[in-house]
Design a protein that fits this description.
Layout: H1 4-23, H2 25-39, H3 47-59, H4 64-81, H5 89-103, E1 121-126, H6 133-146, E2 151-155, H7 161-174, E3 178-179, H8 187-200, E4 205-209, H9 217-231, E5 241-247, H10 252-264, E6 269-273, H11 283-291, E7 295-299, E8 307-309, H12 312-319
Parallel strand pairs: 1-4, 1-5, 2-3, 2-4, 5-6, 6-7
Antiparallel strand pairs: 7-8
GO molecular function: GTP binding; GTPase activity; signal recognition particle binding
EC number: 3.6.5.4
Catalytic activity: GTP + H2O = GDP + phosphate + H(+)
Amino acid sequence: MKTGYEFFKKYIFKGKKETLDKGLEKSKESFFGKLSKAVAGKSKVDDDVLDNLEEILVASDVGVNTTLKIITRIEARVAKDKYVGTDELNTILREEIAGLLSETNLGNETDFSIPSDKKPYVIMVVGVNGVGKTTTIGKLASQFKKQGLKVVLGAADTFRAAAIDQLQVWADRADVPIVHQEMGSDPASVAFDTLKSAVTQNADVVIIDTAGRLHNKVNLMNELTKIKRVMQKVIVDAPHDVLLVLDGSTGQNAFEQAKQFTLATEVTSLAVTKLDGTAKGGVVIGISDQFKIPVKYIGVGEGIDDLQVFNKHEFVDSFFK
C-alpha cells in the first residue's frame, strides 16, 4: 500500500515532467519539423538522409563534434542492420543520444540533494551577466529551503548595484538570509563574511554570487582564485562546487562561454537556463558531451519552481516525446 508521501512524490514528479515537456516544446517542434522535411519521400536511411540529419543537429546547436559522434553511431547501426527505414530514425536517434549521454555518466541526479559530509556546502556561482545567474541562485535557494536545509546567500558581485539589489529580492522571495556590502567592495571580503556568518548560523548550504565579466580572462581568473583562497581561510576545502550558469537560448555562444570559464577556473557543474523560450535545447546534449562537466540544473520556465535537476533520461524522453 502506498503512503500519502509516496502519492505526493508521484504528483510532484508528474508536475515537473509536464513542465519539462512544455519547456522543451519549441526545441522539439523545430527539430522534428526539420527532420520530417529531411526524410520526406525517403523510405530508408541513406547518405542523403544522414547528410540532412547532420545539418539539422548542427542547426539545433548540438555542436559539430557531438553531431559527428551521433552520425557515426547511426551509420554503424545502418551498416549492421543493412536496411533501416526512415520511420525508425526517431527511435534510433533517441537511443543513440541517450547512449552518448550515458557514456559520460552525467545527469543521473533526481533531486536537489547535497553531500551530507560537507557542512556548510559551499557553491560558488559564475557566469556572464544576463544568463540568469542571480535568478538561478534564488531558485536554488528556494529548492534547498524546501528540502529543509538552512541556506545563506553571499552577494559577491559587487561591481553592479543592481546585482546586489536583485539578489536581495530573491533572498526575500526564498526567505533566506543574505550577506552583502556596499557596491565596489572587495568580492573576496564578502565571500569571507558570508562563510563566517554561515558557520555561526550552522547553515547547510552557502551560495556565493560572483561578477559576470568575461572581457579579460586573466583578471577573471585572478578574481575567482582570490575569492577561493579567502574562503578557504574559513572552510579549508571551499568551494565544494563551482557552478557555471549558461543561457541555453544563446546556442553556440553558450559553448564559447563554457570554454572560456573552464579555462579561467575549475568549473565542476553547469546550469543551463531559458530553455523554455528557445528552439536551441539541443545545446544541453552538446555541452554535456563536449565538456564532460555535469549539467546539474536546467531552467524550463520563469517560476521559482521551474529550475529542475537535470536528468538525462527524462530530458531525452521529453525531447523525443
